[in-house]
Amino acid sequence: MKNVFKLLLSLLLTLNSCYKTEDDTGDTCLDDCTVIQGHITTIHGAPVSNVPVEFEHTDSGMFWRDSRRIKKTKTDKNGFFHLKFYIEDEELGEDADGYFHLITDFRSVDHDKYLLSNSIELRNDFFVRYLGALQKRDTTIELDYYLPKKGLAKIRLENFIPIQEDDFFSVQVLFRGGNGVIEKWDVPILDYQPLSRGERVKAFNVLSEFNDVPVAAGTENVLQVDKRKNGVRNSEDIILDVPENGGAASLLPIKNYTHFLIIVLLTYL
After folding, report:
1. C-alpha torsion 210→214→218→220, nearest 10
2. Which CATH architecture has domain 150-267?
3. In the prediction, which pLDDT does 148 show?
4. pTM of the predicted model, to two decimals?
5. CA 235 to CA 8: how far, in whole Å?
6. Residues with Cβ < 8 Å from 232, sequence gap 6 or more?
């Protein structure tokens, strides 16, 4: 038993030694520098300040991983961040091993005020933007991020009477958020790609109500309605224009709107 324990301990120590992180965030680049900069903003272009941003390079295999923390900063009062750094020779070019990624830490933002997506790039409030390989130094890359203002909706799903065991009735909220929103804001929302994914609700009874479903306030959202009835599946995208601070929303199934709460009525037909 002792030999097994020693073997496991030795294995754990060996694996741990194969995961290395080099911290170069305190280095200053003086020549042949690369710059990544951008703004983090919310509705009406309002800045989101004091958000940590970090740039890293990672190379990995089955049992090892080497990471280099290259530069870090926080957004200023204008929501602006600026990272200036030097790319190592072994990291440069399309044939270089590994990849670069920009990590934005949204743990410090007010989650009651801002809406974060359920995208695969967002894990535990960290948004990871994978950049792959960089081809040259002495260049500037602009990367903006849009953080929607948070609103709340009440979604009511009616008349769900399944005929077959695998019948279902669900709605998922989609909205503009993340990278690239600023430069593509004029694109119609149903043509905008990729939309950020919000909460998904699923009917569980003849009448199913879901309170406080997060939506993007002051802009259009898409309600992605997906259902299977008697084995036949179909879907529909409905545009929901959510007011910023009250008022009527432009969607026929809405039966009532009172103080930041939208009530959406959808029927299983």
Report:
1. -80
2. Sandwich (2.60)
3. 92
4. 0.79
5. 51
6. none
